[in-house]
Amino acid sequence: MRSLTRPIQALIIGFFLGAMASLQTVSCLVRPVDHVHHVVARVATEGEISLFDFTRAECDVSGWIESSDTVREPGKSKAALVLQKARLFQRAVFFALLNPQPNGAGFAGVYHQTDFDLSPFSSIDMKLRGQGANKNFKIILRHGRVVDRDSVSYELFFDAPASDELRVVRFPLTEFKPYWRGKPQNDSEPLDASNISSIGIQFYGGVYEEAKQSGPATLEIDWIKASK
Questions:
Q1: What ranges do the domains of the chain cover?
Q2: Beta-strand (E) ranges in 86-164?
Q3: Which residues, including other chains, have CB under 8 Å from residue 9's CB and lie 6 or more apart?
Q4: Cα Rg of the chain, angstroms
Q5: Mapping DSSP to helix (H, G, I), strand (E, B) and coil, where does residue 200 land?
Q6: Is residue 4 packed enough to be buried (19+ CB in 10 Å), middle (13-18) or exposed (0-12)?
């Protein structure tokens, strides 16, 4: 019996260590050591904290879920977030193909569920650049215990920089405004930065905008941080 005990113990320990290692690498989410993934104020000793680091060798982007217009009957767009692994670098690439309706209705995006307390910070920062003719995107946040993807979201439009090198783009938390299906919702409550439940990236058709978009779009992303 003793001869069987040690192999069983070793198997159990190996399984436990493997499970712990997987928890540390899922979706490139950078977690403070004192909590599973809730970002607290005292972690920000340098004025910023890394939320997602796509340059880490052990990074996994499987936690990023597609949220495109195919959830509705006329939708026919597509989006994905993948890792680009080269010999000299690694980063995430957001690919989107937008096939909007004649009025510009359509979207292609991805999101990641989170549990972030960003109240000590003033902005979300991303190191990125755009590729291709289309450069207009959104960052989309949700707060509280929202699980319905058709609920009000908090959005900030931006033009992706097109340059030889990736650049840091800042998204002030106070500038995220409530929208529902692309339409402003001025009577909704402001974003609660203390309880961010998801973060997303979207390439949009512009149903309520003067400029319309369609076709392919790409973003290269090194990391996502929160800063004061």
A1: 2-227
A2: 90-98, 107-116, 123-131, 136-143, 153-159
A3: none
A4: 20
A5: strand
A6: exposed
Contacts of 114 (CB under 8 A, 6+ apart): 29, 37, 51, 196, 197, 198, 199
Instruction: Give the Cα-Cα-Cα angle 21, 28, 70 (nearest 5 degrees).
Output: 125
Determine the length of the chain: 228
Between strands 78-85 and 90-98, the pairing is: antiparallel
Taking the C-alpha atoms of residue 11 and residue 22, their distance in angstroms, rounded to an integer, is: 17
Residue ranges with strand state E in the chain: 48-53, 65-66, 78-85, 90-98, 107-116, 123-131, 136-143, 153-159, 167-172, 177-180, 183-184, 196-204, 215-227
Alpha-carbon distance 18 to 70, whole Å? 36
Name the phi and psi angles at 145, rounded to 5: -100, 45
Q: What is the pLDDT along the chain (228 residues), one digit of tens a residue?
A: 444 455 545 544 454 344 434 333 345 766 543 333 444 433 444 789 999 999 999 999 999 999 999 988 889 999 999 999 999 999 999 999 999 999 999 999 999 999 999 999 999 999 999 999 999 999 999 999 766 667 899 999 999 999 899 999 999 999 999 999 889 999 999 999 999 999 999 999 999 988 899 999 999 999 999 999
The CATH architecture that domain 2-227 belongs to is Sandwich (2.60)
Which residue type occupies 209?
E
Q: Which residue type occupies 55?
A: T
User: How many CB atoms are closer than 10 A to CB 12?
Assistant: 10
